[in-house]
Amino acid sequence: MLPLCPPDMHQAAGRPWPMGATVDGGGVNFAVFSAHAHLIELCLFSEDGRKEVARLPLQERDGAVWHGRVEGMMPGQRYGYRAHGPYAPEDGHRFNPHKLLMDPYARAFDGRLRWSDALMGYRVGSSRSDLSYDTRDSAFAVPKSVVVETLFEAHRDNLPRRAWSDTVIYEAHVKGLTARHPRVPAAARGRYAGIASTAMIEHYHRLGITAIELLPVQAFFDDRFLATRGLTNYWGYNTMGFFAPEPRYAGRSGLAEFRDMVRRLHMAGIEVILDVVYNHTGEGDEFGPTLSFRGLDNASYYRLAGGGRHYANDSGTGNSLNIAHPMVLRMVMDSLRYWVEVCHVDGFRFDLATSLGREAYGFDPGAGFFDAIRQDPVLAHVKLIAEPWDIGPGGYQLGAYPHPFAEWNDRFRDGVRRFWRGDAGLAPDLAKRLLGSAESFDHSHRAATSSVNFLTAHDGFTLQDLVSFTVKRNLANGEDNRDGHSENHSDNLGIEGATTDRRILAARAQRKRNLLATLMLSQGVPMLLAGDEVGHSQGGNNNAYAQDNETTWIDWDRGDAGLVAFVARLTRLRAAHPVLRQGHFLHGGIRSQDDLSDVIWRRADGRSPDPGQWHDPAFRCLGLELRMSTRRHAEPDTVLAVFNMGPEQALTLPDTVPGWRMILDTSRPDAPDALAVSGLIVPAQSVLVFTPVGGPK
Q1: Which residues are catalytic?
Q2: pTM score, two decimals?
Q3: How far apart are CA 635 and CA 695, in angstroms?
Q4: Per-residue pLDDT tens for 189-218?
Q5: What CATH number is associated with residue 681?
Q6: Domain residue limits at 665
Q7: Is the dihedral of CA 556, 557, 558, 563 positive or negative?
Q8: Which terminal Cβ of the chain has fewer Cβ within 10 Å, N or C?
Q9: How far apart are CA 165 and CA 259, in angstroms?
Q10: Measured torsion, CA atoms of residues 575, 580, 582, 587, in degrees rounded to the nearest 10
Q11: How far apart are the C-alpha atoms of 298 and 233, rounded to whole Å?
């Protein structure tokens, strides 16, 4: 029989707020939600987390919040919960007090998950399957929640607060970015400290990066089927702690190291955006472990199906969080505010965001989650990015999100890839992507920066593999190459995979420059995948979620310095020309100051294409003459960009300005700016950029 309280501590009633474990004067207040439990026990553990030393029933309950205060307790205490209630899976209840539960609001965890059948609430192998009941204690296998003293800072005057129009996003994995970087101190490689190391900050500045978007850093664990194969959940889309930084990327003080990373990046003028996973948890379906939410109140935390025994699975990972429940929504909102107020992050990218806006009748841009997040004063200044799809019914919702959300635009990715692959009839689609995909986003007073444009992301081919492989190679994942996308709109340019053929290598380099130039010359917000700028390859693996190794770790020693310089040139060009990053959508309006259209489409002969030419499959050389929107009169900026997927041909420059100067030619990436040009040959498969003589470079 465990003691009710250690002799140096005293239990009191406490209060139902804030949720989680809160250091309060000479003790710690605990508050945890469960609407259907009969009893919640607070379990205290020894400093090493191995021995349970006390169980304290939380005797006070306000509504569905159980609470108590332990006087004399100090930060660093290891703890967990046990929840008593009905075990009736057919009705959605899976209470099992033999299973130690992680605090959903824990700010830190100690120890790694140890996979064992004892983690399951049911008896593995029983003829009654998940309807059976397991009585083994799981405490030895569960990470312990840790009491952490949270420090709020009153003054945060180093926030960069970049305008969306000035933003260039760099999507990166904490470990993969620096694990092999020779100039990052060895002790910091693969950690939060490495992200903000001097070498990396210098690299961000050179590239023109203004925001780094980190793959999930909220505490997660490795799936059992991966662990048994010697693999890990490298990407981290398996969250179990929405308030705790993932400890594998830090030393003992994960929160302090994370906060220091953010502070150093802010001092360098770089924002931090977190990829967050509020659509599901790591507990999986009815055959998954009982680690936290399932054991505390399965029927409240999850969207259930089949009368309550099974789980809605709009995420494809086994379960879906029930964001429509007010206490689950409160947890998500508390989590977002925590990362902003305590960790000072600048924004969030919401994984499978359609799940967050799905009500009982389907997706709704006025769903409770969107209403809550848009009225919250703490979140008013942060960047919000939606991945606008999931696998549920009506899951693809590109363009349907409310202001101020931006959205990952896969139509940009696919359309630009197909144009440069040489697919016929893609000029009209390219035109839409260059102007910010207005057909999707130009409504409800949304900005032209609503589209987050990307060529590649963590999920899919890298840029190098996009021009090197036509078929995915995911055998290392152990799923017989069934996982990952099969249609990548890729092109190997003559040979599958690596080659020493100089002709093919030159063609691949040119294709990458064309793709990158298109990205940086388009309206919207560009996002670059970390490693693309140095030619990182994953050997054709387009779903490297389980590859925590040299497949995904960027090889900086073999990086393409010339490509780095080219990307830096593109971001400087974009920064120098407001016309390339406008807040208003462009629709060919006539400007009063010069009677010229803000958008003029051009053929190679200088004329504007007629409707028939637009839809001619052979129309593969598209010119775009851009000026500032009719709503902006102060900026005189003008840019002419030519995108030629066809053969070499003569180019006639328009006479709308006295003279043109060429400032970019992707076929000659090292060539200096041309002083003045009037007519020339546009090389095959190239991008050219011109500005008026005397204008900014």
Answers
A1: 351, 387
A2: 0.97
A3: 11
A4: 999 999 999 999 999 999 999 999 999 999
A5: 2.60.40.1180
A6: 586-692
A7: positive
A8: N
A9: 26
A10: 170
A11: 24
